[in-house]
Specification:
Helix content: 55-70%
Bound molecules: iron/sulfur cluster
Strand order of the largest sheet: 1-3-2
Strand content: under 5%
Number of helices: 17
């Protein structure tokens, strides 16, 4: 099926090559765009997009303000902004946001555009053509085995595990709503693969106030989300690093990096992190402060590093003492967030109730 979307529809899926081609030549060069009023408005629109992306609760609506062309341009500018922020978590947030947004439009588009409805109502033509545009070989209800395995690798939902799937003659059976989910995952993967862009330092400099705004907003989000630091909710890998530190072992660079960036992201300040390192018998305050400030972005480079995901932790041999919760997460930060939330929601056991105050001996 030939996919000939309207401009509005292109703005729903701004990552498509067709969408990017659609705005080619409609805007001046990036340098020039940043100098005029229209450009300023575009940057603000892009900024709002990133801010939406880092906000935990997102709501999408069918109506977008501005023209489809502005919407597509804002998408591209948002990617430049997060590339200048250069924080893996912020980049992940934006790619997830874009994938969720596309999913929203994909699921609803066939309600708005009857031409996408398949006769038997079994599947959406749009989903199929979009999958094609994104390079997924997905037919009505099947997907080639190898493509499937590659695509679902990052997904943790048990439904997608091969043991729970029907595999026949090299194809995995897919349900309608799962096709949408797989397209969403494909969008996320493709958008993530291209980021961060190599943006010239001079350009990042021009939008530095916006970049600083996003960094600040994200840090505030993190503090709000993680709340007070609770060591009891740390994942096993971080406990192992702290234990090694306390026992006087010399942590590898990867170990120090992982621990410091983890502690920084959950909201521990530089002196708190240094105090953690002070548990080591051969604590060197000067060296520690230098390393901590470098990793947390205060050491002059301005780059804030975020904690490595579980896959990276495994590669560096730092994923230790996994527990059942580890099977459900792909990032030590998700582990921490989940464990903290679960602890908060768990009803207090009788023995955890505050003890009655014993009567004073004098009464
Ligand atoms: S699975 Fe992830 S959270 Fe669990 S120990 Fe390994 S790296 Fe840490």
């Amino acid at each position: 099926m030939e996919y000939s979307p309207s401009a509005k529809e292109l703005s729903h899926f701004p990552f498509l090559k067709k969408s990017q081609d659609h705005i080619k030549g409609r805007f001046a060069t990036l340098d020039a765009v940043l100098k005029d009023k229209r450009g300023e408005a575009l940057v603000e629109r892009a900024l709002a997009r990133v801010q939406d992306a880092i906000t935990p609760k997102k709501t999408f609506t069918p109506d977008v303000s501005g023209t489809p062309e502005e919407e597509i341009a804002a998408y591209a500018l948002a990617r430049i902004i997060v590339s200048c922020v250069n924080d893996r978590q912020v980049i992940d947030r934006l790619t997830r946001y874009e994938a969720e947004r596309a999913y929203y439009f994909l699921v609803h588009e066939e309600d708005w555009n009857q031409s996408y409805k398949q006769g038997d109502g079994e599947y959406s033509r749009l989903c199929i053509v979009l999958a094609e545009e994104l390079g997924i070989r997905i037919t009505q209800d099947k997907m080639p085995f190898l493509d499937y395995v590659e695509m679902v690798a990052p997904l943790h939902d048990d439904r997608f595990h091969l043991v729970n799937r029907r595999v026949e003659r090299g194809f995995v059976t897919i349900k309608k709503e799962e096709r949408y989910e797989l397209v969403r995952e494909r969008v996320r993967m493709l958008l993530r693969r291209d980021l961060p862009h190599k943006v010239p330092a001079s350009l990042c400099e021009k939008i530095s106030p916006k970049v600083a705004q996003i960094k600040k907003a994200y840090q505030e989000q993190m503090l709000e989300q993680f709340g007070a630091v609770e060591e009891s909710a740390f994942p096993p890998c971080m406990h192992a690093l702290i234990k090694a530190l306390t026992e006087g072992a010399n942590l590898t660079h990867a170990g120090r990096f992982s621990l410091t960036s983890f502690l920084h992201t959950i909201g521990m300040d530089v002196s708190g992190i240094a105090a953690m390192y002070a548990r080591s018998p051969d604590f060197d305050p000067e060296k520690t402060m230098y390393q901590v400030e470098h990793i947390t972005g205060r050491g002059g480079s301005g780059t804030e590093y975020t904690a490595p995901a579980c896959a990276a932790m495994r590669t560096t041999g730092l994923c230790l003492h996994k527990d059942p919760l580890c099977e459900k997460v792909s990032h030590p930060l998700s582990y921490y967030r989940t464990k903290k939330r679960d602890a908060k929601n768990r009803p207090k056991k009788a023995e955890e109730k505050p003890a009655d105050i014993p009567p004073s001996p004098s009464t």
